[in-house]
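call fold(seq) -> tokens
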Amino acid sequence: MKKKTRRRPYAEQRPQDLGGGVWSVPVPIPGNPLGYTLVYAVESPRGPVLVDAGWNHPDAWEALSGGLASLGLDVSEVAGVVVTHFHPDHAGLAGQVRDASGAWIAMHESDAALVRLMIEYAASEQDGFQSDMLRRAGADPSEVRDVMGTRPTPPAAPDRELRDGDLVDLQGRKLRAVHTPGHTPGHICLHLEDADRLFTGDHVLPDITPHIGIYPYDRDDIDPLGDFMESLDRVGELVPLELDAIEALPAHEWIFPDVAARAAEIRHHHEEKLDRLRALLAQRPEPLTIWEVAAMMTWNRPWDDLAPMLKGMAAGEAAAHLRALEARGQVRRVSGVDPVRFQALDS
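ret:
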């Protein structure tokens, strides 16, 4: 079993020169157990290019701008921000960096489309979408009210869109986008090919695993967990033949030496989770709602102790695992019922 490494709190983090024209700046996420996002800066003749930007909060902005300054970098000289995915702890400050420096913002086209959709949607439309999604999953009315909370402001829309294999505008370096969907549809890792380093965003983290969910929960036209596991295999194949490993520079926790080994561990974790879920469903003769399945699964604390928002995320993850089993022909969704229900198929 992998030995656990103690996650250092934000107060113990410091900006670092990682060598080879790469720096890291820890940026706090207020009120979040993750603690911080590691924002990276990559040297460029036109000014540094940031990988992610951190949460949109005054304390985070002070940490980002001050951290860059402590490394001899000026936020007003940032040339660009490439966002690994649209979540607020990664994209939140990108707009403020652009305002301060005139930098471009780039992200994968799939996440860019989601950002535009979030900007266009009125709050009332989002509330109606979320409440109906929760009801169809089997949450009772009181749970629907509890789960629905405030949402962060959408991130700034990007100026540039990336596709798999595109090189980021980084003069003198080779920083290539690697599409790794799962955590979000447009999540990307960034391979610094001239240094054999991989900025992994949330795709591969050293100790925890990223949230993989389906929204709305009952979609049957996508398989984000299947996509995620294929993406894990893909990053494991990036290691050149002449090397044993590629160093991973993740957005949370700490830098670690072997992205392929950790990707294989995460894949194994999800395979075991799918096996357990299939066995649980096989023990129940009646079809179950997504909410009932989520309550049966193992989380980092008992279901009844989860905060309402975390129950909503757990249901999204349960839905993704059910969808993966459905895609493999191991469970079926019952047609013509509301809320949607799933049942194990005979082996």
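DSSP finds ten helices and 14 strands in the chain.
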